[in-house]
Amino acid sequence: MADYRIHEHPILPVEERPKVEFTWQGQTMQAYEGETISAALFAGGVRTFGHHHKDGAPQGLFCANGQCAQCLVMADGLPVKACMTPVHPGMQVEPMDGNPALPDVQTTPEMQTAGPVEVECLIIGGGPAGLAAAIELGKAGVRVLIADDKHRLGGKLVLQTHKFFGSIDACYAGTRGTDIATILEQEVHQFENVQVWLNTTALAVFSDRKVGLLREGRYVIVQPHVLLVATGARENSLTFKGNTLPGVYGAGAFQTLVNRDLVRSSERIFIVGGGNVGLIAGYHALQAGIQVVGLCEALPECGGYKVHKDKLARLGVPIYVSHTILSANGKDEVESTTIAQIDENWRPIPGTEKAFACDTVLVAVGLSPVDEFIHKAREFGLPVYAAGDAEEIAEASAAMFTGRIRGLEIARSLGRDVGQVPQEWHRIAEILKSRPGATVTEDIPEVEEGVFPVLHCAQEIPCNPCTSICPQNCIVMEGEDIRSLPEYVGEGCIGCEKCVAICPGLAITLVDYRNDPEHPTVTIPYEFPAEMIHAGDSVTVLDTEGAPLGEVKVMRVRAPKFSDRALLVRVRAPREIARHIAGIRVQEPGVTEPLNEYVARIADDEIVCRCERVTAGEIRALIREGARDMNHIKGVTRAGMGACGGKTCTNLVKRLFREEGVSLQQVTENTRRPLFIEASLGAFAGVVAEGGATEEVRVVHATDAHEGGM
After folding, report:
1. What is the pLDDT, as a whole number, of residue 694?
2. Given 192, 269, 478, 676, which residue has the most CB atoms within 10 angstroms?
3. What is the DSSP string of 93-125?
4. Residue 482 sits in the same domain as residue 419
5. Are residues 221 and 150 in the same domain?
6. CB–CB of 422/161 below 8 Å?
7. Beta strand 211-215 with 200-205: parallel, antiparallel or unpaired?
8. What pLDDT score does 3 carry?
9. Cα 171 to the chain's mean position, in Å?
């Protein structure tokens, strides 16, 4: 069987782990202990997990976050989500083909029930916002329970191998997301009054102001005095022909496979969406040894940070702005994708179609807050706060800071003497949440002597690590706003290269004329395996926008401790190009060439509701007939009636209304389900799932407020 595991990574450690055996369709496969079924299947080259009962369409991974049901498989006779279910030794896994049969139960299962767990503050979500809030609450002595549905804390931080933007003092700028997750996790565990429940899914907020949780297969009721929702965001989707083929999935699912599970999930990917999520996913793909054949963005310019776009472009990835995807092509899995340029009315321009061979299409077209818990808590009168993406979509740096603010606000609401939230915190939070500002012409120094950094960042974004790290204070910003562009202020540089190493956008190089003014050296950051580059190699260097400048010789490759796993590559270049060098090409141009002919997908299968296989055409017809109630559309087509509860299709249906010229003010929303995630009836009855939690659930009363435990 194929091996798609990542055995070497420039940033992430690849450690030996115990292996277990399981079977897939009767064939023995290997997984790592604690690994999910989906990761183990992808590692073995399996991407189709079953076929839909309605039309036999192939099904595969989509969200990798437990929010949908596209990855259902049969494991030991029971339907489970492959992305959330760990493999255990001897597990028998089969495809989900059609509807599952009810298991033949011959015995009465063990049942356990427990009274409600009372806490002062329940935090749903152990990502950057939830952890930052828990730390402030821990300091204030508040009894906190963090519930997170993953096997470790950190949320999306654990998927982020790049260095963070923002401020070093406020949000660990210049530190990699994976390391920030560890820092926050360790700090949270220092507080005895903060308890953590992992592998715990929040199901619902009820009218009696209690919250239902599913903890490792066991149903638990929690009664919080205050609820903090730090559930993050879910990815938006698109409708296009072939949009449900195995191999079409979100950038978050891709990063989960590559950066958490260390599985090389693809050979060649194409990315749809030029926000930070899509741009960063492309960079992560290249680091994992996956070819990125291109990225398309419908807007005239990418919406993500320019330094992210430039970084991808100068590594050899073409970026097609004012383009959209027409189709993902293939019979059972993605084999190619077709894009086209769009006009000012967002319509494809005939004759501009281009097709690319690829096995994966990453859809990265924005995020929506996971905010259903907030609305229900407000409806039922449970005091509730929101932090991070659940409140407002922004960068993880902003999520950490809003988490701190909410933690202090909650502590005050619970009567702790913590003082007012400093106004400076609010100011910093707004800066960190701000969108990219003005883009200016790149300022290339005119001087050609001595040694100095060249700052290749030309867009106002919240980021200041280079000004904080310079030992000579040679790099400064105007005023106190970290959104200002950094500037090198004349003489004083000693060539320490620390600014080159810390820049999150890999947007600083160091030019040194001191030894040879006609052939100066240029130090360039490089975050790829050391085996890919050596002293004496000839490499292609590019400018900020990715235009080739020429071939140069590598003089030295080193990895000083302060570079945090990045390499610093020193090249010797002709004087006329040295100041303009911004990067080294990693991917050769031939990888990104389109196919010789346009590939069209004949099947009209633009799927809006993935669970029930409802097409865009079916819903458009109802809208044109006068339907204005999404419950009506659900009743006729079953769109939104599937296992995911309308998490993906709701926004797509709203988009169809807008495309048909119907204002959303005229549209009646779907009635929300009382449970936000599927759960077995056995869980509510107190059935203890095999391998589920057996630890006694302790009831915490208000008198335990300062006893340091739960």
Report:
1. 35
2. 269
3. EEEEESSPPPP---SPPPB---PPEEEEEEEE-
4. no
5. yes
6. no
7. antiparallel
8. 86
9. 18
Beta bridge partners of 250: 363
- Token readout for 604 is 């009209």
The DSSP line for 413-429 is HTT----PPPHHHHHHH
Model confidence band, residue 68 (pLDDT cutoffs 50, 70, 90): confident
Rounded to whole angstroms, the Cα distance separating 38 from 46 reads: 9
| 75, 59 Cβ separation under 8 angstroms | no
Q: Are residues 171 and 224 in the same domain?
A: yes
347: CATH: 3.50.50.60
Task: List Cβ neighbours of 4 (8 Å cut-off, separation of 6 or more).
Answer: 42, 43, 44, 45, 263, 264, 265
Task: Flag whether 322 is in a domain.
Answer: yes
The predicted-structure confidence for 467-508, as pLDDT tens digits, reads as follows 999 999 999 998 888 999 999 987 789 999 999 999 999 999
**Residue with token string 């080193």:** 558
The 3-state secondary structure of 613-652 reads: CEEHHHHHHHHHCCCCEHHHHHHHHCCCCCCCCCCCHHHH
Answer whether 56's CB lies under 8 Å from 112's CB: no
Per the CB < 8 A criterion, the answer to whether 525 and 512 are in contact is no
196, 282: one domain: no
Are the beta carbons of 501 and 566 closer than 8 angstroms? yes
Q: What is the dihedral of CA 549, 554, 560, 565, to 10 degrees?
A: 60
Tell me, yes or no, whether 462 lies in a domain.
Answer: yes
Torsion of CA 527, 530, 536, 540, to 10 degrees: -30
Same domain, 578 and 458: yes
Round to whole Å and give the CA distance between 399 and 281. Answer: 20
What pLDDT was estimated at residue 1?
A: 59
587: its two tokens: 């991917």
Same domain, 222 and 244: no
**Residues 579 and 461 occupy one common structural domain:** yes
Per-residue pLDDT reduced to its tens digit, 567-578: 999 999 999 999
Task: State pLDDT tens for residues 210-253.
Answer: 999 999 888 999 999 999 999 999 999 999 999 999 999 999 99
Choose one of 433, 462, 485: the last residue of a domain.
Answer: 433
* Residue at which a domain ends, from 384, 405, 433: 433
Any domain includes 266? yes
Give the pLDDT band of residue 110 (cuts 50, 70, 90): confident
Distance of CA 235 to the CA centre of its chain: 9
Where residue 642 sits, what CATH number does that domain have? 1.10.10
Mean residue pLDDT of the chain comes to 91
Note whether 289 and 324 are same-domain residues.
yes
CA separation, residue 280 to residues 270, 274, 361, 678 (Å): 13, 9, 15, 31
Domain region containing 615:
608-666
Q: What is the mean pLDDT of residues 704-709?
A: 31
Give residue 700's pLDDT band: very low, low, confident or very high (50, 70, 90): very low
Residue with structure tokens 């998927």? 159
Number of separate domains in the chain: 4
From CA 112, how far away is CA 106, in angstroms rounded? 19
Encode pLDDT of 322-348 as tens digits: 999 999 999 999 999 999 999 999 999
Instruction: Say what the pLDDT of residue 485 is.
Output: 92
